[in-house]
Amino acid sequence: MLQVRQDQTDSRIFDPDPANVERRYTHFLDLYNGLKKEYPALLNNLSFPRKMLMGNFDPNLISTRCSAFESLLNLIASESRLRNAPAAIAFFQDVELNEAKKLIDEGKFDQALSVLETSFKLLNKVYTDRSRVVLSVLCRIVACAGSSGGALAGPVERWAQLALRRYEAGDIG
After folding, report:
1. pTM, two decimal places
2. Whether pLDDT at 168 is above 90
């Protein structure tokens, strides 16, 4: 379970509404390998735990992995080049995007909207309000709600207004 918060540690204000998503070891490994390939110097001092075929529920292994994953995510949070790398964008959005696509294909627009809202919540905490990644998920939300045949008319209008405000607010980064 990955929890992303925007805490203000200097004033000890903690984010009351964190984004929670599930990621597997393989997702973290793909993230690490993708970033290491594109920015080897930035990841030089970061060690990554190996894949284990057995003993995945050992408390020591879990603790070691959590620490390594947290170090990787903290590095990404502090370095915009890593955050904007294709591997990071894929890590932060692809699981939910693929699930939403599947649900839309099945005509389950309300469930797809919920998944995309979770994705927005996560991406909005990782990226700036007007980043392409955040605006893209807002567009997906509007398209999903708009495809519902009117069933999600209220949410589609609210999300469309937010997307428009964000887009009109300034430069897209």
Report:
1. 0.87
2. no
